[in-house]
Fold each of these.
Amino acid sequence: MCFFAACCRPLALTLAVGLGASAMAGPPTGLKAYSPAAQALIDRAFGDLDPARPVVDVHVHALGLGQDGDGTFVNPDKLSVRHPLKRLETSLYLRATGVKGLDHFDQDYLEVLIARARAFPRPLRIHLLAMDRAYKSDGTPDPSRTEFHVPNAYVLDQAARHPDLITPVISIHPARKDAIQELEACAARGARLMKWLPNAQAIDPADPAFDPFYRRMKALGVVLLTHAGEEKAVAVKGAQALGNPLRLRRPLDLGVTVIVAHCASLGRNDDLDHSGKSVPNFELFLRLMNEPRYQDRLFGDLSAITQINRLPAPLQHLLAHPGLDDRLLNGSDYPLPGVDLVIWTRQLVRLGMLTAGERRALNEIWKRNPLLFDFVLKRTLKDPGTGRRWPASLFQRDPDSLAAT
Ligand SMILES: [Zn+2]
């Protein structure tokens, strides 16, 4: 069922040439030792963790081109020469994966990811994200709007294959006619976390039509991990309003536990509570976080929070407010940490969150293992005023423990 059957060969070739054209973060070799400075930074990042529990990464993307009938899909527009900007963007993401060439991309992507995860000096638990298609309000799929697709079966199978490493995160568009049926089937296979990207999937979290779906999620103890804020990683066709954090009041008020990806750290949206004026999404997220009724129900993940286009306010705020620590989870947004254009360690030095020496060591780690880099970076960042770092407990918090009863 490869959608690219007719066209992917030449595209694969041209993209493969692009992939090899410049420096990229490669798979961990495991052979060469890190410099003493990099090793010291890694040791410090892992030193105060609870040895009885794994490191947790709640935000790792699965990705595939539909090879070997695995059901994954990438919209051909993203690879087409007729859409040079999208194609360039895609080739940057593909390069970040560390996969060389596209002939066995699907398999290689997982192999590199798994090698990078297993190169952690302590066990890591990866929450691997499915991605449902975009659907129209009548419950039929919207292929033109679907950027990429990773079926639930794909992540469930990978989790079954690597139970010590991978936890499946399902994705179900609530407008699907079989939405509740699919939710129950996935929950029966152990899924406890659901991923949405409302801007790209055309999901309005505030739509009352989804109330029965939310009630079923709550009853089954399934937590919602949803992007909020502006979404740059996928084209959205005027749907940024769907990423308004205030639209999450609907599932929250029905008792669903919600993790807001990236803490809604990008872009602006209308203040639906008051003036209707445009305010930063991060501000709207913090407003929800401050409401006592959402205290045990609303969380944020740190994925993408260090990216250059989100600096500096959200990162500064989160580092400066220890009161939020118990409501945050670690997430890498892998493979994005491998895109050298999105994380500028130099800027973090300028902001006083890293020293120049830490930056050099981190850059060395990045070249070997962007997934490890993301973790060590977040453990190294400090509030420039107080020198405070995020606590170890944040990086071992498991979303399974969050579902409200
Ligand atoms: Zn993501």
Amino acid sequence: MTEPAEFRDRMRRVWGGADYPALAERLAPAAHDLVDALAPGPADRVLDVAAGTGSAAALARERGAAVVATDLAPRMVELGRAATAGTGVVWLEADAEALPLPDGAAEVVQSSFGLIFAPRPEVALAEARRVLVPGGRLGFTAWTPDGFMGRMTAAMLPHTGAPPGLPDQMDWARPDVVRDRLTAAGFGEVTLTERALPWHFDSPADMTAFFRAHSPAHAAAAAGLGEERAAAMFADIEAMTGPPGEPVRLDAAYLVVTATD
Ligand SMILES: C[S@@+](CC[C@H](N)C(=O)[O-])C[C@H]1O[C@@H](n2cnc3c(N)ncnc32)[C@H](O)[C@@H]1O
């Protein structure tokens, strides 16, 4: 079992280890879906957990909410601060499992593809609930196991191995598991809505080059494997997506999950 502190320190470095903003752009439509589902307004204080470069945080701010954006990785906080400069979004470096906010500090807690990286889901959900006011709204997005990101993650595992002692990230989009988790954490009125990001790449090789350059998880996996084994992993991913040299069109399916305190 990876020690929580050791894992956290590694993740702080890993998430700063790629040129993330281009991936954030590809994920941005999901941030729109999430913020639309939560519909924050001027009367709301919004906490964005694992905010990355701030796509969802900025949208909540545009709707008039007071927004605090948090992320574990110093590099993400730096990029997010720059991307939202002048908008009034407040940034803090923080672990989703230990939020530096008092109880009842937010009407809305949101996380676009961020909460799903917490190594102890029950701890992260308890923290989200603690900082919400009674009746507050939680929302997050999560990759579905059968969608492209779920299948790509599964294709990587024979190469990288599963991180020891960590839960399956895809559980965040398995309806039974996520409902049970939310209920156990004290949330109710759970809604699950499946959506997809329509992604296009010029070729399978272009697609893996994109992930290698812009996805911190892929960059870290490749660095850990070394060139030869990383090439085998990326070849398996490319084989999932179509013939060499042909354009790639895929739907990266995800759930928008909402719940009420
Ligand atoms: C895929 S990115 C999503 C970022 C952003 N929400 C977006 O939609 O672009 C995942 C983010 O989770 C952050 N993260 C990972 N583990 C975390 C943790 N335990 N606590 C807080 N943030 C974490 C990473 O630093 C990264 O910014």
